[in-house]
Amino acid sequence: MKIALITEGTYPVVTGGVSTWCDQLVVGLPEHDFDVIALTGTGMNRVVWDMPPNVGTVRLIPVWGPPAAVLHPGPRRRTWVEATQKALTQLWDAALGPEDNDPLGSTANALLRLVGISDRIGLSHALATRGSVAPILDAWTRHCVSAGEPPMSVADAVLAASLVDRALAVVDHKLGKVDVIHASSNGPSSLLALAQSWRHGTPILLTEHGVYLRERYLALHGAKMSWPVRRAATAFLRRLSQIVHAHAHLVLPVNQFNARWERRLGAVPRRIHTIPNGVDPAKFPPVTSEPDVPTISFVGRIDPLKDLETLISAFALVRGRVPRAQLRIFGPTPVENASYKARLIDLAGSLGIAGAVHWEGPSKGSRPAIEAGHLVALSSVSEGLPFTLLEAMMCGRATVNTDVGGVSECLDEQQTTGMLVAARDYAAFADACVTLLTDQELRRAMGANARRRALAEFTLERCLARYREAYDAAHHRRPLRREPGPAGLVSAVAPLNLHEAAAELPV
Fold first, then answer.
1. Is the peptide bond before 368 cis (omega within 30 degrees of 0)?
2. How far apart are CA 464 and CA 458, in angstroms?
3. Structural contact between residues 160 and 132, judged by C-beta atoms closer than 8 angstroms
4. Across 354-382, average pLDDT
5. Secondary structure of 69-114 in the HEC alphabet?
6. Three-state secondary structure call for residue 398
7. How would you list the strands of the sheet with 250-251, edge to edge?
8. d(CA 189, CA 324)
9. Average pLDDT in the 265-291 region?
10. CB within 8 A of 52, min separation 6: which ones?
11. Average of pLDDT values for 124-132?
């Protein structure tokens, strides 16, 4: 069959994480043909992965690039612009209004109307003529100010509209004929999938690695934007996430943590099937040596979600108890995160440990980074089912991790396969690192236990077998059989008010 694999900011323009998962799919399922559609930022990205023969086309779609659709002139163009305003008014009423007036039905109807407008004149042109500014201001005044929120300025509405309208405009990009759409994230990439599904009836599979909405809460919490802008942007993304979850033929989270969020955001429980990530044991045999000096290793992109402030702050405490300790940080720095890395370097300098923190840059795979440390550290504030951890476990390396996303699901409850501490608790993180650095017997036993668990639960073969079944089920419009055992179960959760869900992570 032919599958459209839709990504955002990952494969095939960056390495690691979700990109590793995408490469595993297209390489590991050679019986299927793939079209890769990647949403990027400005269009300056380039493909960094070698494409296997079963990848037909690779399209990079810059969200902040030029319009995709050619403007269709004609005497009725003004009519379509007015229709766009009506659809946007319905969309923002549903996003910012109360929960008791079928906001999901209104959101779906508004998005469907916008897809129709895209097909007639090109949505990006209609939005450029008159976008979301007036509908946002009107909905905010009627629904939010009356509920006690501060007024929204025109400047705030312009900024919020610029963020959301660019996302909406991705529906102008038409996909070729495919049998199944597989979105690797919610948000704009899933909106593109939704438009294709509405146009052609193509089934959607959704795999979230980190919960998209939760990560947007985290990102916008640290953004230099006013409260009304953040509130409006996340309100739209929340409704979009709900619509995608409800419409997807199958929702395939990589862990149970994601599955709980997805149920709360409207995914049909019987359509949710957890498929954990997998690692090829042949590519990650056990490590057989350790460095000469006590070393903590990190591997991953330099990104605020990795919370390297906590890792560096913890390492400063480690140095006070293990004076020769070193920290080696492997991974690329995306252009947009250059200022974040600069802040991390300044932090290491202010803590007096700059000479012991080594910025190694990108590594060819994770194994060199895993071999470089006595232990591997993962200090993230958000994760899916992290490949860094699974690969370290398969290599037999001990790890120290923060308890976020599906990290705890990788480890056993007794923490004999890896250590777990609360996110952002740098003192506890330091204690765990010192414990492993100073206890060789514990460290080696933990590494051996970790490899045994990875071989039993997280092999690539097991992962790919489930995706084969999922693609076949979607293609034939039938349910996916539920895998017996813990990996196939989705625990029941109580209904959650979505405003309460948003409040978990203040914006």
1. no
2. 11
3. yes
4. 96
5. CCCCCCCCHHHHHHHHHHHHHHHHHHHHCCCCCCHHHHHHHHHHHH
6. strand
7. 55-62, 33-40, 2-8, 180-183, 204-206, 250-251
8. 46
9. 96
10. 26, 27, 30
11. 92
Element (H, E) at 399: strand 398-402
Spatial neighbors of 395 by CB under 8 A, at least 6 apart, are 284, 285, 286, 287, 367, 370, 371, 447, 451
* DSSP one-letter string for 429-457: HHHHHHHHHT-HHHHHHHHHHHHHHHHHH
The total of other beta-carbon atoms located within 10 Å of residue 146's CB is 9
pLDDT-derived band at 413, boundaries 50, 70, 90? very high
Q: What is the pLDDT of residue 95?
A: 97
Q: What is the pTM of this model?
A: 0.88
Strands 55-62 vs 33-40: parallel, antiparallel or unpaired: parallel
Q: Are 39 and 61 in contact (CB under 8 A)?
A: yes
Do residues 262 and 272 touch, judged by C-beta distance below 8 A?
Answer: yes
| C-beta of residue 265 within 8 angstroms of C-beta of residue 187 | no
**pLDDT at residue 336, rounded to an integer:** 87
Q: Nearest-CA neighbor of 396 among 283, 286, 299?
A: 286
User: In the chain, how long is the greatest CA-to-CA distance?
Assistant: 79
Encode pLDDT of 387-407 as tens digits. Answer: 999 999 999 999 999 999 999
Short-list 209, 373, 390, 233, CA closest to 305: 209
User: In the predicted model, what is the mean pLDDT of the chain?
Assistant: 92
The number of residues making up the chain comes to 507
CB proximity list for 375: less than 8 A, separation 6 or greater: 296, 297, 397, 398, 399, 400, 433, 436, 437, 443
Q: How far is the C-alpha of 443 from the C-alpha of 34, rounded, in Å?
A: 42
**For position 16, what pLDDT does the model report?**
86
Q: Is the pLDDT of residue 294 over 50?
A: yes
Query: Average of pLDDT values for 317-340?
Result: 95
**Residue 85 CA: distances (Å) to CA of 64, 135, 172, 198, 243:** 22, 7, 17, 21, 21
pLDDT at 43 over 90: no
CA distance 389 to 17: 11
- Which helix (H) or strand (E) is 8 found in, with range? strand 2-8
C-alpha 240/C-alpha 190 separation (Å) is 9
H or E element, residue 427? helix 426-437
Helix (H, G, I), strand (E, B) or coil at 361: strand
